[in-house]
């Protein structure tokens, strides 16, 4: 391949990201010469470029069981392979080779339980400057397909500094014991004095014993406004990912299998799953910050 052909190939590779006029100036070839080359063999060259990038994209896609989209693939390409590829090109290659990320539908609970005595301290400020100062707690359900037990319940506590699930508990009912076990796990993990614990207005979180437990732990309670799902979006976001992505890693049917699958997914979420705003996993971000 001569120098001009290499320059034409370079222009074609980046023509979806930058104007052709600018690229021909950089490479010092003529615009008409580029279009003649493109008519001659540009499409074949594009296929070769796409195919080479697809190998890396497919590796990231399959390693994450098809749960990653263009944003996280872009971060993965740069982080793992040193490749800078824009999202538009990644989307085009994924469509070309039939890769489709599972798209989750956002669902929020509208809990009717009112409690005007507890302020919304967090007030949708989901950013935290250090670990253990802003936490969010909630409960979700997971279907059990086999056996007499139809549902499992997960209570999770998320650190808003890095999005890490720092404590959780699983049980066959959503009573107060489920919440207390999660709080006990958080106590072992550690947090800052007067940390904020945010929740929605679920019955467990308006329970006076729960409020007393937070006071004893030195935690300030914050609560979403009535019927406002966005106030608690930070923890609902995790539950959405879990329900959409966990079946891609395994298909649990029994109580034991659900428990194992949830534990495995939380480990993956904390240690391996890239968060777009962090451009790394929660544990990697916490370790780097430390």
Give the key terms:
290 residues, alpha/beta, Nucleotidyltransferase, domain 5, 10 helices, 49% helix, elongated
What does this structure look like?
The protein is an alpha/beta fold. The chain has ten helices and five strands. A five-stranded mixed beta sheet has the order 3-2-1-4-5, with helices on both faces. α1 packs across α3 (31-63). It is elongated. The relative contact order is 0.12.
Write the topology of this structure.
Elements: H1 3-14, H2 20-27, H3 31-63, H4 70-81, H5 87-96, E1 134-143, E2 151-159, E3 164-171, H6 176-189, E4 196-199, H7 208-217, E5 220-223, H8 233-249, H9 255-271, H10 282-289
Parallel strand pairs: 1-4, 4-5
Antiparallel strand pairs: 1-2, 2-3
What is the CATH C-level name of the largest domain?
Alpha Beta
Q: How many separate structural domains? A: 2
Detail the poorly predicted runs: 108-114
Beta-strand content estimate: 5-15%
Number of strands: 5
**Given the C-alpha coordinates, what overall shape results?**
elongated
The third-level CATH topology of the largest domain is Nucleotidyltransferase, domain 5
What is the helix content?
40-55%
Distance between the termini: 50 Å
Placed side by side, the strands forming the largest sheet appear as: 3-2-1-4-5
Mean pLDDT level: 85
Class based on secondary structure composition and strand pairing? alpha/beta
The CATH level-2 architecture of the largest domain is identified as: 2-Layer Sandwich
What is the CA-based Rg, rounded? Answer: 24 Å
CATH homologous superfamily placement of the largest domain? Ribonuclease H-like superfamily/Ribonuclease H
């Amino acid at each position: 391949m001569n120098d001009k052909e290499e320059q034409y190939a370079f222009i074609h590779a980046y023509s979806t990201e930058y104007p052709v006029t600018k690229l021909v100036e950089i490479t010092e070839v003529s615009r008409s010469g580029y279009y003649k080359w493109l008519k001659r063999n540009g499409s074949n060259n594009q296929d070769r470029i796409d195919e080479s990038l697809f190998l890396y994209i497919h590796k990231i896609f399959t390693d994450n069981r098809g749960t990653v989209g263009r944003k996280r693939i872009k971060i993965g390409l740069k982080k793992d392979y040193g490749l800078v590829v824009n999202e538009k090109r990644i989307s085009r290659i994924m469509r070309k080779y039939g890769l489709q990320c599972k798209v989750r539908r956002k669902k929020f609970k509208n809990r009717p339980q009112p409690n005007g005595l507890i302020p919304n301290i967090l007030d949708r400020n989901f950013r935290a400057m250090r670990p253990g100062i802003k936490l969010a707690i909630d409960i979700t359900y997971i279907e059990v397909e086999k056996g007499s037990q139809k549902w499992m319940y997960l209570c999770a506590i998320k650190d808003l500094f890095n999005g890490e699930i720092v404590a959780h508990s699983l049980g066959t009912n959503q009573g107060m014991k489920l919440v207390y076990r999660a709080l006990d796990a958080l106590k072992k993990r550690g947090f800052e004095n007067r940390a904020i614990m945010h929740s929605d207005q679920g019955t467990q979180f308006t329970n006076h014993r729960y409020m007393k437990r937070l006071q004893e732990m030195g935690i300030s309670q914050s609560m979403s406004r009535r019927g406002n799902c966005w106030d608690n979006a930070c923890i609902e976001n995790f539950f959405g990912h879990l329900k959409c992505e966990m079946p891609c890693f395994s298909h649990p049917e029994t109580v034991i299998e659900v428990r194992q699958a949830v534990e495995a997914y939380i480990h993956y979420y904390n240690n391996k799953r890239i968060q777009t705003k962090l451009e790394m996993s929660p544990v990697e971000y916490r370790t780097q910050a430390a």
